[in-house]
Amino acid sequence: MPTINGNGLRDRARAIPEAAVARLAVYLRVLSGMREQGVASVSSEELSGAAGVNSAKLRKDLSYIGSYGTRGVGYEVEVLVDQIERVLGLTREQSVAVVGIGNLGHALANYGGFPGRGFPVTALFDVDPDLMGVPVGGIPVDHIDDIPKVCAAREVTIGVIATPPPAAQAVCDRLVQAGVECILNFAPVVLQVPETVEVRKVDLAVELQILSFHVARRADHAPDADATPAQRVNGNAPNGVVVRR
Ligand SMILES: NC(=O)c1ccc[n+]([C@@H]2O[C@H](COP(=O)([O-])OP(=O)(O)OC[C@H]3O[C@@H](n4cnc5c(N)ncnc54)[C@H](O)[C@@H]3O)[C@@H](O)[C@H]2O)c1
Fold first, then answer.
1. Which residue has the least CA distance to atom 18 on ligand 1?
2. Which candidate in 8, 35, 83, 96 could, as Cys together with 4 as Cys, close a disulfide (CB 3.0–4.6 Å)?
3. Ligand 1 atom, smallest distance to 103 CA
4. Which atom, in ligand 1's list, is nearest to the CA of 163?
5. Are residues 124 and 105 in contact, defined by beta-carbon separation less than 8 angstroms?
């Protein structure tokens, strides 16, 4: 199985489309589970089925990182995990700070799934006096004035913003001034950052709208397009006639 490393890997990583990067992260999650179960090799069909993408797309995605598999054997799980981790920059842990410890911040801080994926939450910040020093998920909440000191001491590389929208830009500026170069923003605002800083925005409402679009489009193309979803599930058209499939 051809592999690439060093500069070659970094050059290739720069050329990978954003959507493929997101799928590589999904393959990594699936492959890590397989590795835990002692699976040594996996076919592209098995991996694509488990990841929920078609196998042609999977092979194309893996070709971006120079992994083509072996006919009749497939991909070596251990090797593929290592390659994807290196392309995604996961060879060292990324320490995460969450700012805004309200409903969302509490959920993120208490979620136990991040450390195992290489993203331990190590710092929490808020402005609410009642929260200062209170442990959430085992980590005491600090005031945002302490962002520079705490982020430096805990080597924070990723800042998660879970504040109300009006506070998000100022919080982002503080994180950037503290040397944090990756921001995951949950607040529904567009953040201004220097070119050296990467921002990803999470908006569940947008995801729901995309789902809604797909459902609506599928319904438009269905033979019983005028039926309600319940009628389609039951096989009944609006006029009470049973639809045959
Ligand atoms: N992206 C999504 O899908 C999604 C989903 C839910 C919520 N949100 C967004 O996440 C944010 C948080 O939502 P929530 O329900 O947890 O709100 P919340 O009101 O429960 O919590 C907000 C927290 O931020 C703190 N805060 C306020 N100003 C601050 C500042 N300047 N610095 C640091 N902390 C500050 C508050 O004290 C509070 O603890 C909102 O912007 C909301 O719109 C996004």
1. 102
2. 8
3. 16
4. 24
5. yes
| Alpha-carbon span 173 to 164, nearest angstrom | 15
Strand (E) or helix (H) holding 148: helix 147-153
Spatial strand order of the sheet with 139-143 comes to 135-136, 139-143, 121-126, 95-99, 156-161, 182-185, 198-201
Give first-to-last CA distance, the chain, whole Å. 45
Q: Which two tokens stand for residue 47?
A: 């991996």
State the distance from the centre of ligand 1 to the C-alpha of 186, rounded, in angstroms: 8
Tens of pLDDT, residue by residue over 196-214, are: 999 999 998 888 888 888 8
Domains delineated in the chain:
6-87 (1.10.10.10), 95-202 (3.40.50.720), 203-245 (no CATH)
Going by C-alpha positions, the residue among 109, 116, 171 that lies closest to residue 134 is 109
Q: pTM score > 0.90 for this model? A: no
User: Cβ(102)–Cβ(162) under 8 Å?
Assistant: yes
101 annotated to a ligand binding site: yes
Q: What is the DSSP letter of 161?
A: E
Q: Distance between CA atoms of 155 and 42, rounded to whole angstroms?
A: 36
